[in-house]
Every structure is written in C-alpha cells, then in structure tokens.
Design a protein that fits this description.
It comes from Anopheles darlingi (Mosquito). Keywords: Cell cycle, Cell division, Chromosome partition, Mitosis, Nucleus, Repeat, TPR repeat. Its main location: nucleus. It is found in: Nucleus, Nucleoplasm. α7 runs antiparallel to α8. It is elongated and about 110 Å long. The protein contains 28 helices and no strands. By secondary structure, it is mainly α. It has a domain of 112 residues: Tetratricopeptide repeat domain (Serine Threonine Protein Phosphatase 5, Tetratricopeptide repeat, Alpha Horseshoe).
Length: 639
C-alpha cells in the first residue's frame, strides 16, 4: 500500500473501532468504515482480514447472517492459499464452519474444516482446534465413527509434538464418543490409557485437576450407563473432591490457567459449568440408587446455579443441563406420587425446548418428553394416551436404552389393559432385540421384573418367583434400591397368593422400609394393602387397622393429587403426539421462576431403576423413566 492508502486504512480502522466501542455501539457506521476500505483496492492480506473483521462484527452484533457468511466466504477464498497468514486463514475457516452449522449446513462446514486441517499441520494450536471442531460437527450429525477417527488423529499429532495436555483431551473426548456409541470395552481401554498420563505426565497442577474432573465425569457416567450404582461410588467421591478443589476461593480463574501457552488454551467446560455437571451426575447416581429426596436436593442446587449463570451469560449448554435436570425432577415427582407438579414441570421442560435456538433441544428431547408424558398418563390410568405416548417415543428415538425403557412400560400398559397377545409380542421383541446386547443392570433387572409381574398376573407363581429372584440378585449386587423394593413387594404378594404368610411378611417388611426411605408411594400403597391382609390372617387386629389406615392415607393422597392435576391446562399435553407441542401454557399455578422446581428439586442423568409398583388388586403399577448420562456430553465437546 502507498503511504496515503496506509494512512486512510489506519484511520478507517480506528474509526470503525471507535464506533464499535461507543456507548451504545454504532455498528452501522462501524461496518461502513470497514466496507470503505475496499474502495482503496487493498492488498490481498488486507482485503482478506477486512472481510474476516466484517464477518465477525456482523455475527456478533447483528442478525444479518447472510451478509456475514458472504464476507467470511470471501475471506476464506482470499486467505486459503496465502502463506504465513495462519490466524486470519484458520480463524476464518473456524468461524465460517460455525456459521454454516448454525444454519444447519454442516455439509458445507465439513469440507472447509477438512481443508483447514490439511493446511494447519505445521501449527499445533490451530491443527488441534480445527480437529476438535470437525469432530464435534460429525458428532452432532451422529457420525460417531468419523468423529472418533479425527480424535485419534489428534492423539497421534499431539504425541509427535509432545503436547501431553492436549493428548489427554483428545483421549478423553474419544472415550466420550465411544460412550455415546455404547462401546463399553473401548471406553474402558481409553480411560485406562488416559488415567496414568493424567496422574504422572501432567506437571501443571491446575490443568491436572481439570483433566481429573473430565476423567471422573466419564468414568462415573460409564458405570452408571451399566447400572453399576455400587461400583461407581469411589469414582463419584473422587469427582466431588476434585470439583470442590476447583471451586475453592483460592483457585485461579480459567483465564489465568488456560491463557499461558497455545497448547494449553483448550478446556472442556468452564469450571462453573463443570460444577453444574457434577451435580447432574450426582443426581443421576442418587436416583438410580433410589434416593429421591437426595436427588431433589441436588437438583435444586444445580438449577439455582444454572439461573445464576444464565443471569451472567445465557450459554446454550445451560439449557441442556436445565432440560435434563427437569426430566429427572419429573421422574422424582412421579415416583413420589406428586403428579400435579410432574405435569407442570413437563410443560416447563417443553417450554425450555421450544425456546432454544432453532428448537434444537426439542429435536433432541422430544422422545424423552413423550416418554415422560406416557409415564404421567400411565400414573393417572389414562392407558390409551400412555400407549400412544410410548409408541411415539419408540418411533422417534434412536437411543436403544430409551427404546427399551419405553417398551417395558408399554408392556405394563398391555398388562394392565389385559391385551395378552400384544404383551406377548412386545416381550418377545424385547427379548430378541436385547439378547445380544449388554444393557444397564437396572434395565435388565427391570425386564425380569416385568416378566415376573406378567407371570404373577397369570397366576404362574413359581415362574414369577424365578424371575423376581433374578431381579433381586441384580438389584442387590449394585444397590438398586427401588428395583429391590418393587421386587420385594411383588414377591411378597406372590407368597401371599399361595398362602405362605411367613415368607410374605419377610418380603413386605424390608420392601416397606426401603419404600419409605426412597420414598415411593406406589410401593407403600401396595405394601400397606398386603400388610393389612397379612395381619388379618395372623389375627392381629391392631396392626391390621394401622395398615388399613396407612393404605387409605396413601390412596387418598394419590386420588386427590390426580383430581388436582387433571384440572390443570398442562394436563392437555397428553394429547400431543406429533409435530411441535402447543405453545406455553397460561396457568399461573407454578410460581417458581423457570428452572427452579417447587419444594426442592432433584434429578439424575441416568434415570431410575425399574418400571415398578402394583397393588394387591393387580392394578397400580408405577414406572420410572431412564435418561442416559453421556448424552449430556454430546452437546458441547470443547469451548
């Protein structure tokens, strides 16, 4: 450029920055100043950089994404073949790919990122950043094999450049992808490879602690995915200790930790979001173990933290955390017999999904919402609606565990409505689909439970005992308390039906103790009716009256709550089977702010143990929805 051009260029840049930083910013004049630069026909580097700046400003301050895209495309075309121009070239590629993804054009984003990865092999920072971004793009499109291959390339390239911290991030990210694919053995192998590297090869204590949180989150989710509630306790405790260390007042800020050198400028999630995520997996564990009160308490804390973070900056990942927490507080409500709060929180979850950008969360979570509505409808004995909701969930989801769970509850609907042929068909289908798959201990135990319940309804008591003992064996091995209580109360009813009052009492007593600890009102209702009959058989009138009064109280509470919830406008959600759900409800009953559930909250990233429950009249059968951990991690790989 000539000296006069140079002076004009600097002046226009200065003016554009002045307008951008004014109070309030004058973005129109800022853009006009930058566009004026093109009238001087600047050199390619200047032209490319200016197009990038325009794209950045338009994306940050306006909704004119088409114009932003045009500028970024021009910047990419101009800079792609310019040497020694890495920051502009790769920043442009990254931002352009990000914009394509926002417009659901990942097919355009991928070739740009692949080309940039090819050109960036000499630059460790950009090469790794672009590999992570392309892996995330493939993972978002559920192309997990391609995402895994890219992360493996990252492991190799960081090995060559001795970037140990980055190598650990690539390994853990690959384990996360394997977990989404349910490749259990591969997940374990990669975690076993990453663990020693984190423990012995990471010298920076702050980076090490962040990696430990990432590692323990994956390890905990891995165990919970397998239903290993007892096995996971040590890892969960270590995770909680690590997050306490990171959240301590004397811990440096993320900016201080991750801004030292280019190969250490990557993090999975900021510490405030990690804090919420640790609550999430803790809730998951509590719910699987059958501690609803504890799950509610941790959910309340997590939702409060989410609201605090939203008030500072409303990141999309916060809505992801919120929706999963709401899914699980809803499960708690249903187990505890509080349907009126459950349906309001289902409506709230629906509204959170609808309010997300491009209804992204609705696309991801619609099957879960249908499943929750199916459970709610089943708890209110609206079996036709429950069947349709479960069927919609099964048709819409690609998650094998969610499909299995919906099928198990659909089997209970067929059992309750005496549709024997449909029940036989669905049990055979479940058996066939899962005979060659390794499922969660909780889900497989639930399958045996449903078979035991079916055998009980057919008065095949010997067969029922066989299935239920298998369920108890699985539940006791991993402290799945709700599965245990449901199985014990049904086994007690089996023994009562064959006149063995002693064994029936031996089963129902621990069942009631566990049910009151959870608390599970359906098991308590069922168990109190069994106790009433047992005490009458044993000629114990005082205990019989006590059991009868308990049964009446449980029953009246459930009936009153059902009458209440069916009058809410949110109740009409049970009629939503396709398309977008109806717009936000007008009811003012739920007075808490969005994201804060009434009277304490709790939830879990991996749902509860079993479709469970039933009464001596063989008609009250509750259920619990399963939400898998790890799917949280699909939403954001790196920030």
């Amino acid at each position: 450029m000539t000296s006069s051009q140079d002076a004009c260029y600097i002046s226009l840049l200065g003016l554009s920055e002045y307008f951008r930083t004014s109070t309030p910013p004058d973005i129109k004049k800022c853009v006009q100043c930058l566009q004026a630069l093109f009238t001087f026909k600047p050199p390619l580097k200047v032209e490319a950089r200016t197009h990038l700046q325009l794209g950045q400003i338009l994306m940050a301050y306006t909704k004119n994404t088409d114009l932003a895209k045009n500028h970024l495309e021009q910047a990419w075309i101009l800079s792609e073949n310019i040497n020694n121009f890495d920051d502009v070239k790769f920043d442009t590629a990254s931002l352009l790919a990000q914009l394509y993804q926002q417009q659901d054009q990942s097919s355009l984003a991928k070739p740009v990122l692949r080309k940039a990865i090819e050109l960036s092999q000499h630059n460790v920072y950009w090469h790794c950043k672009l590999l992570f971004q392309l892996a995330q793009t493939h993972a978002t499109d559920k192309e997990y094999t391609l995402a895994s291959e890219l992360l493996a390339v990252g492991v190799e390239s960081t090995d060559e450049s001795n970037a140990t911290y980055l190598k650990s991030l690539f390994l853990l990210s690959r384990a996360m992808i394997m977990m989404i694919e349910r490749k259990t053995n591969d997940v374990l192998a990669i975690l076993n490879q990453a663990g020693p590297i984190i423990d012995h090869s990471i010298q920076n204590v702050h980076l090490k602690e962040y990696l430990k949180v990432f590692f323990y989150v994956l390890q905990v989710c891995h165990y919970l995915q397998l239903g290993q509630v007892k096995t996971v306790k040590t890892s969960l405790k270590q995770l909680q200790q690590s997050i306490q260390t990171i959240m301590a007042a004397n811990w440096p800020s993320d900016e201080q930790i991750f801004g030292q050198n280019s190969t250490e400028m990557f993090m999975w999630l900021p510490k405030e979001q990690l804090y919420v995520l640790v609550y999430l997996v803790t809730v998951s564990h509590s719910m699987m173990a059958g501690y609803m009160d504890k799950a509610q308490k941790y959910t309340e804390k997590a939702l409060t933290q989410i609201e605090k973070l939203k008030s500072q900056e409303n990141k999309p990942i916060l809505a992801v955390f919120q929706i999963i927490l709401l899914e699980h507080i809803i499960m708690c409500r249903l187990v505890m017999g509080n349907k009126s709060l459950a349906i309001k929180e289902i409506a709230l979850a629906k509204d959170v999904c609808l309010s997300s950008s491009h209804k992204f969360l609705l696309k991801k979570h619609a099957p879960q919402l249908h499943c929750l509505l199916g459970l709610y409808a089943m708890s209110t004995s609206l079996f036709e609606h429950a069947e349709k909701q479960f069927y919609t969930c099964i048709q819409d989801t690609t998650e094998r565990e969610l499909k299995l769970f919906a099928n198990l509850n659909l089997a209970i609907v067929y059992l309750r409505t005496k549709r024997e042929q449909d029940l036989r068909n669905i049990l055979e289908q479940i058996q066939q689909e899962n005979s060659q798959c390794s499922n969660s201990q909780a889900l497989m135990g639930s399958f045996y439970y449903v078979q035991g319940l079916n055998a009980f309804h057919k008065s095949s008591f010997h067969e029922a005992k066989r299935f239920l003992r298998e369920t108890l064996k699985m539940a006791n091995a991993e402290d799945l308390n709700r599965l245990t209580s449901c199985s014990l109360v049904l086994l007690s009813h089996v023994f009562l039906s064959i006149g063995n009052s002693r064994e029936s009492m031996n089963m129902v007593t621990p069942a009631m103790q566990l049910a009151s600890k959870i608390p599970d009102i359906h098991v308590q209702l069922w168990g109190s009716a069994i106790l009433k009959d047992l005490h009458r058989m044993l000629k114990e009138p005082t205990q019989e009256i006590e059991a009868y009064n308990n049964h009446v109280n449980f029953s009246q509470n459930l009936i009153a709550d059902q009458l209440k919830c069916t009058k809410f406008p949110e109740h009409t959600l049970i009629n939503w089977f396709q398309g977008d759900p109806p717009l936000p409800m007008l009811s003012q009953e739920l007075v808490q702010p969005m994201g804060v559930a009434p009277s304490g909250s709790g939830s879990a990233a991996l749902g509860a143990n079993t479709p469970g429950g039933g009464t001596p009249q063989k008609q009250q059968t509750g259920a619990t929805f399963v939400r898998l951990p790890g799917t949280v991690n699909q939403q954001v790989m790196f920030q």
